[in-house]
Amino acid sequence: MTRPVTGLTRVAIPDGSAEAWVSRPEGDGTYPGVLLLTDAFGVRPQIEKMADRIAGWGHVVMAPNVFHRDGSIAELAPGVDLRDEGASASYLAQAFSRVRRLTPAQVEPDLDRYVDALLGLPGVLDGSIGVTGYCMGARLALRTACLRPEVVAACGCFHGGRLATQEDDSPHRLLPRARAAFVLGHADKDRSMPAAAIEQLDEALDDAGLEHLTRVCVGAPHGYTMADTPAYDEGAAEWHYAALADLFSRSLAGRSPDR
User: Which of 31, 70, 185, 255 is most buried per CB count within 10 Å?
Assistant: First the structure.
C-alpha cells in the first residue's frame, strides 16, 4: 500500500467555498478520483483515516465539508470522545439540526461542484469517478450518482438512512438517471432503513437496470463503519472496505486496489 499524501483544499460552491480533505497516493502519477461523503459528524480524524485507506488503493480521495454553511471543519469538530455513548448522543443531537437544513435543493448544486472540484485536482484521471457515502452521506452519494451519471461509474452506500421513502424527493426515485454500479451495505438494526425500504430500493435498482450488490450486515447497527463511535462493528466495517475496493477496481480505470 502506498503512503497517502494528505491535506486540506477549498472548493468553490454557489454561495462561497467549502473546505475538503484530500488524500492521494504518494509520488507522481494519475489516479481515479473518489468523492467521500460523510456521516452527520462530518470531516474529522476518522474520515481522514478512511480517505487515507481508500487512497492507498490507488485513488485521489476528496471528502468535502458538506456543512460548510454552519462552520469550518475545525469549528464543527466534535471536541469530545465519540466512543462515549453519552457524548456521542449529545453531539449527534446538535448535528441533526445541520442535517435537517441540508435539503436536496440546497445540497444538489454543491454536489455538482464537488464532482467538478475532484476532477480538477492534480493527478486525477479524466473520466470516471467513484463515490462513497455513510449514513446521511449515503443519500448524498446516491444523489451524486444520479445527478452526474456521465462521470460517476461506481457508488457505495453504507448504513444509509431514508434511501427509499414514500416522499416525492426520495433518493431512490432518481435512479433511472444513474449509470453506476452500486454496493449497498445496510444494518439489520437500522430503524432508518427497515427491510421494506431495502426491498423498495433493490426494486428501484432492478427497474433501472443497474448493477448492484446489496448486503444486510446482521447484528450491525447504523454507523457500523465509524471506528470513533459506539456503533463500530469491525466485521461489517472490514466487509465494507473489501466490497468497496472490489467495486472500484472493477468500475474505475487505473490501478488495481492493494488492500
Answer: 185
**184: CATH:** 3.40.50.1820
CA distance 204 to 123: 35
Question: Is residue 235 a part of any domain in this protein?
Answer: yes
Q: Which residues, other chains included, contact 78 with Cβ-Cβ below 8 Å and sequence gap of 6+?
A: 41, 44, 87, 91
* Counted domains in the chain: 1
User: pLDDT tens digits, residue range 95-135?
Assistant: 889 999 999 999 999 999 999 999 999 999 998 999 999 99
Pull the grid cell for residue 194: 427497515
Handedness of CA 34, 40, 43, 47 (dihedral sign): negative
Residue 60's beta-bridge partner residues?
33
State which residues form the domain around 149: 4-251
How far apart (Å, rounded) are the C-alpha atoms in residues 148 and 155?
Answer: 11
Secondary structure element (H or E) that encloses residue 22, with its range = strand 16-25
Strands 60-64, 181-187: parallel, antiparallel or unpaired by DSSP?
A: unpaired
CA dist., res. 242 & res. 127, Å (int): 23
Task: Record the cell numbers describing residue 165, joined without a space.
Answer: 421513502
Contact assessment for residue 43 and residue 19, using Cβ atoms and an 8 Å cutoff: yes
